[in-house]
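Lab notebook, bench 4. The sequencing result for the construct came back, and we need a structural model before the next group meeting so we can plan mutations. Quick request posted to the team channel:

Model the 3D structure of this chain.
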Amino acid sequence: MSELLNRLQKNHRRLAAQFRSQNIEAWRLYSQDIPAYPYLIDLYKNYVLFYDQGREVEEEPELVARHHGEARKALKEILQIPDENIILKRRQRQQGKEQYEVLEPETDEVLRIQEGPLHFEVNLYKYLDTGLFLDHRPLRRELMRSCTGKKVLNLFCYTGSLSVAAAKGGASDVLSIDMSNTYLQWCRRNFLLNDIDYHRHRFLQADVVAWLEPIPEERFDVIILDPPSFSNSKRMEDVLDVQRDHRRLIEGCLDRLTMGGKLYFSTNKRKFKLDPELEVIAKEITKWTVPPDFADSGIHRAWEIVKTP
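Done. Here's the predicted structure in token form:
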């Protein structure tokens, strides 16, 4: 217990003050730092999302239960929160978009959190993921800084946090595309939370892979491409594998970029390798796109590709 408590206290001391000073209410406290405690622990205001990444409960139920209890006790001591504010989920290796599947929560309550000048709706109960990828915080900040007056395309937009950042930064037109109408509606709500008139922007329910195939009808100054590692969704025409398919996705995006426009491509796939036959200059920007609460976690890799003649 003391080992876990010490690590949580150390992480909290290292991170809490800087995030508080930046008005960031959602961040990662712990990322499987100690093998005996294979957890991901995220803070959302005064709530804790506690993901167990380890053994099946049936294998060693008493040990698992004891470790869960130790973690809960440590979190309550450090954060001064009640037990009901600690939400436990078991997170295992997923296929496709299983991480987005609806769970069976006791409540469907949503929480509004702040990230600097931005605000987002999250749901800590209904889905395995909350509606906000915390590791893309630096990219949201960069989009807000650099998209003034630009046309932006966000592919696989999910709940639109990157779209919101671009629009909040003064983008003239943001097109957000996802297969899920649920997430596009969520995206619109995030626009409203940030006092952005979403009627000035566009939302399209479509299979991104199929949408990229035809000859493009318009160009964009900035494109965001953050596909799932794998998806076999029934709404897609084919199975998506980011390692196999990233070249044609990137080439489809380049066809839609203005000259000098930027493509931000990122992936969470472990051991991902960029296709050496891609005829582009891809600058890896992983270092600055990974925030301090995800340092050394290998949470994602990212590249910036500028369209040149």
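Confidence is low (pLDDT under 50) at residues 93-100.
Will bring this to the meeting.
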